[in-house]
Amino acid sequence: MSQSVIDIEAYLHTHEQLKQAIEGLSENQLKWKASAEQWSVTEVLSHLADHNIVVSFRIRELLSGSAAQLPAFKQDPWVSSARANESSADDILDVFRALLVFNSQLFRRLTGEDWSKSGVNFKGETVTLEQAVQAFINHVQTHLRQIERIKQALPQKETSK
């Protein structure tokens, strides 16, 4: 039986929060960019799916006791090289949710000792599994605020679905 130290429901709820954040946005609105250097809502979602992939790997590295440094990734090149803005927000969110569900099934099997396992991140800091998962939840919250800022900046003449 799991001795989870994180709120697994809060972890899973990040998917619903993202779905609610984009509710009613048209494809044009999802792909709109304030400038070439800034991300669209779709690109933010793609970044979060990428981040979820990386965190899923980090989780397994921590649990395995690997001495390898936890990987970082270059978010802007990942988003641009994947041509993320050509993707479907719904497809991206399906992948995001699948990773959440898969990881949450793992979380439910972990012991308190597992949650305390640690490794060294790309900044040279020691992080526990608990900290890594909580940081992911917090990271999604940061990008939910970014999505709200993008929505506020959308041209007013654009209509939603």
The CATH architecture classification is Up-down Bundle
- How many separate structural domains? 1
What shape does the CA trace take? Answer: elongated
Low-confidence stretches: none
Rg result: 17 Å
Tell me the CATH topology.
Answer: Four Helix Bundle (Hemerythrin (Met), subunit A)
Structural notes for this entry:
By secondary structure, this protein is mainly α. The protein has one domain (8-153): dinb family like domain (Four Helix Bundle (Hemerythrin (Met), subunit A), Up-down Bundle), CATH 1.20.120.450. 61% of the residues lie in helices and 4% in strands. It is built from seven helices and two strands; from the N terminus they run ααααααββα. It has helices at residues 8-22, 27-31, 41-64, 75-81, 89-107, 112-115, 129-153, and strands at 118-120, 126-128. It has a two-stranded antiparallel ribbon with strand order 1-2. Strand 1 (118-120) and strand 2 (126-128) form a beta hairpin. Helix 1 (8-22) packs parallel to helix 7 and helix 3 (41-64) crosses helix 4. It is elongated and about 55 Å long. It starts with 7 loop residues before the first helix and ends in an 8-residue tail after the last helix. The model has no long low-confidence stretch (mean pLDDT 93).
